[in-house]
Design brief:
Blueprint (H helix, E strand, L loop, with lengths): L2 H4 L7 H10 L7 E5 H14 L4 E5 L6 H9 L3 E4 L2 H9 L7 E3 L6 H10 L3 E4 L2 H10 L4 E6 L27 H10 L3 E7 L8 H18 L4 E3 L10 H15 L2 E4 L3 H4 L3 E12 L3 E5 L8 H5 L5 E3 L6 E7 L8 E9 L6 E4 L20 E5 L4 E5 L4 H5 L4
Parallel strand pairs: 1-16, 2-3, 2-9, 3-4, 4-5, 5-6, 6-7, 7-8, 8-9, 11-13
Antiparallel strand pairs: 1-10, 10-11, 10-15, 12-15, 13-14, 16-17
């Protein structure tokens, strides 16, 4: 399938697309917009496939408080990867027992602040991590993250389960780190594996599960089996569930999962207006959104489907260029779209994950507005950043 073809096989719920058309009359572009019904549907699909699993939403995918509070109502827990995300989780109303903090570096300052605000469940990534937590937060409930050392099939930046990745404890080192955790008076709930992100090949999951089963047989029993997330958007969770559930049952462990992008990507779009076209050796649409608004295309060479929110006659193949003075500021290439007129808008799909959370103030662009369609009206999740807020922290 060519890239040009791939951009013409996605659509939005008609009700949500109609709401977007109305939003263009009230909100300045660019803005992120989310469909609550799509988010709920994706979560339901995951919960039905894994009815006995504890779901920890990977909040780095999209940390808006308005979304987190909905997830809290739906009995979902949170996976955080920074101190700031722990603060955000608590502000959204989650208890410390409902938050898991992962990540490869936990400094003494971070651990000391956790002691003040409440210590969540901790995912330990190394021997150094384990020793530091043992010293500063004895008695903590922890998981040990394993690097399964497998040839995971995904983008290099997303393959956290490869042996050359910075993440996790190598299988041969688990015994040593486990002993250190127990000497340090830590409550080891179990082991954790996260193979990578955007994974769609069942073989990768099954290989990772085999590594975990061997480690549990060797070092267990444990209370919890955390199999992480990274589910590709095209992965049917029902196809993976039987093997994961059966593994947890064989090991006598509670199954934990950490979906992030799988839940929120399809629920969100980035809406941008077109402020001109130009022709060099390629055809460009000139947008008011760019790499500061959506970094994934530049960072991961990620491809996002695009649909027009306008009508036009002549179809052409376009590159979508942002306003940033960087040659890499291209949000999509080889997109077949109708020829626009100035001020027309389009929607970049699958932008609900790692869109706003990776947005930046590069070149002093304010972070964009974010809104949620609840089926009846638009809710503002985050206002467009003001100039005052942009400069507030500078002396």
């Amino acid at each position: 399938m060519s890239m040009t073809q791939s951009y013409n096989q996605k659509s939005l719920r008609p009700e949500f697309q109609a709401a977007l058309q109305e939003a263009l009359h009230h909100f300045e572009t660019p803005f992120y917009a989310y469909d609550l019904q799509t988010l709920r549907s994706r979560l339901t699909q995951m919960q039905q496939a894994f009815p006995s699993a504890e779901i920890f939403y990977a909040m780095k995918a999209n940390p808006r408080l308005g979304i987190l509070r909905r997830l809290l109502e739906w009995d979902v827990f949170l996976e955080a990867v920074s101190l700031g995300e722990v603060h955000r989780a608590y502000r959204a109303g989650f208890k410390k027992t409902e938050v898991l903090l992962n990540g490869p570096v936990k400094t003494p300052a971070i651990l000391q602040e956790l002691a003040e605000i409440g210590v969540p469940i901790l995912g330990l990534d190394s021997l150094a991590d384990t020793q530091r937590v043992s010293q500063l937060l004895p008695g903590s409930r922890v998981l040990l993250r394993v690097n399964p050392d497998l040839p995971i099939a995904t983008h290099d930046h997303l393959a956290t389960g490869r042996g050359e990745s910075k993440f996790g404890i190598m299988p041969d080192d688990v015994e040593k780190v486990l002993a250190a955790a127990r000497r340090g008076n830590l409550e080891v709930l179990g082991l954790h594996v996260h193979l990578g992100s955007a994974l769609s090949h069942l073989e990768d999951y099954h290989a990772g599960y085999a590594v975990m089963e061997q480690l549990y047989r060797q070092h267990g029993p444990f209370q919890v089996l955390n199999l992480g997330g990274g589910f590709g958007l095209d992965l049917d969770p029902a196809s993976l569930a039987p093997s994961a559930i059966a593994l947890a049952e064989r090991l006598g462990a509670e199954l934990w999962l950490e979906p992030g992008r799988y839940l929120v990507a399809e629920a969100g779009v980035l809406v941008s207006k077109i402020w001109g076209t130009k022709h060099t050796r390629r055809n460009f649409m000139l947008l008011d959104a760019g790499m500061m608004t959506l970094l994934r295309p530049m960072l991961y060479a990620a491809e996002h489907p695009v649909i027009p929110l306008y009508k036009g006659k002549k179809m052409q193949v376009w590159d979508l260029a942002g306003p940033v003075c960087e040659s890499g500021d291209i949000l999509a290439r080889d997109v077949q779209l109708p020829t626009p007129k100035e001020g027309d808008a389009l929607a970049i799909l699958q932008a609900g994950a790692y869109g706003s959370s990776m947005s930046s103030n590069y070149l002093d662009y304010p972070r964009p507005l974010e809104i949620l369609w609840n089926g009846l009206e638009w809710e503002v999740l985050r206002r467009k950043q003001s100039w005052e807020a942009l400069f507030a922290d500078e002396i």
